[in-house]
Amino acid sequence: MERISKIGFLGGIVLPVIILFIGLIAYFSTGGVSQIKMTTETLIPNFKETGTLVIFASFILGYMGVKHQLLTLTNLRIQQEHIL
């Protein structure tokens, strides 16, 4: 089970981050300009906008799903230890 989770972590998180980082370096090294305006006003999200709330809710629900899976896996391991 640990091997599958390591492969999933590498393939689903680490590999895409590396690819995106390489793409970022390539974009800026060829003269690309950042499309994001980084100011003090844009640093803190405006929760009065609907789009911001939707993104915030999706992050929270995604975190809750991962947390639920970890708790379920922990419970299964505890049950397996008691059975064996």
Describe this protein with a few key phrases:
84 residues, mainly alpha, 0% strand, flat
How would you describe what is shown here?
With 84 residues, the chain is mostly helical. The protein contains three helices and no strands. The chain has helices at residues 2-29, 40-43, 50-83. It is flat. The relative contact order is 0.04. The model has no long low-confidence stretch (mean pLDDT 80).
What secondary-structure arrangement, pairings included, does this model have?
Blueprint (H helix, E strand, L loop, with lengths): L1 H28 L10 H4 L6 H34 L1
In short:
The protein has 84 residues and is mostly helical.
H/E topology pattern:
HHH
Radius of gyration: 20 Å
Strand content: under 5%
Q: Main beta sheet: strand number and arrangement?
A: none
What is the global morphology?
flat
Mean pLDDT: 80
How many β-strand stretches? 0
